[in-house]
């Protein structure tokens, strides 16, 4: 469940491999989970997330999300060495482990149905959202015609919907 999984750790952190992700491309929606995480907005939450990543030997992180997720990733990146130093000072990890994990590589992918990111034609999630919108429009068109009514369809998308 996104950053919540990083903060909570345990079974929430799973290895992605060819077998576990090979068929998700055909699935619309957030098949890998999605959640807002209040804890990750605090340094204490990010410290727990850092400890969990180090415990699992994870030095590469792929963040898919909108403004909040990508801003969180940038803050996490900027604080990474300080978080490791703090974990060493608290005795949660050794200096050697901190040195082995001194670098956190983060890739950020814009995943938003808002489709409001400059430099790309379509963000991840937009195509699925547009397909669902078209399905709903197709479904209510005949109802609107047969009942001689007008329907207003509101869609998500912040200022773009």
Automatic annotation (TrEMBL):
GO MF terms held by the record: 6-phosphofructokinase activity; AMP binding; ATP binding; fructose-6-phosphate binding; identical protein binding; metal ion binding; monosaccharide binding
Q: Which reaction(s) does its UniProt entry say it catalyses?
A: beta-D-fructose 6-phosphate + ATP = beta-D-fructose 1,6-bisphosphate + ADP + H(+)
Keywords of the record? Cytoplasm, Glycolysis, Kinase, Magnesium, Metal-binding, Transferase
Ranges of residues in domain Phosphofructokinase: 1-161
Which pathway does it serve?
Carbohydrate degradation; glycolysis; D-glyceraldehyde 3-phosphate and glycerone phosphate from D-glucose: step 3/4
Pfam annotation, one family:
PFK
What cofactor is this protein dependent on?
Mg(2+)
Q: Name one GO biological process term.
A: canonical glycolysis
Claim: Kinase is one of the keywords in the record: yes
Record-level GO cellular component terms: 6-phosphofructokinase complex; membrane
Question: Cytoplasm: is it a keyword of this entry?
Answer: yes
What protein name applies here?
PFKAL protein
Give the species this sequence originates from.
Corythaeola cristata (Great blue turaco)
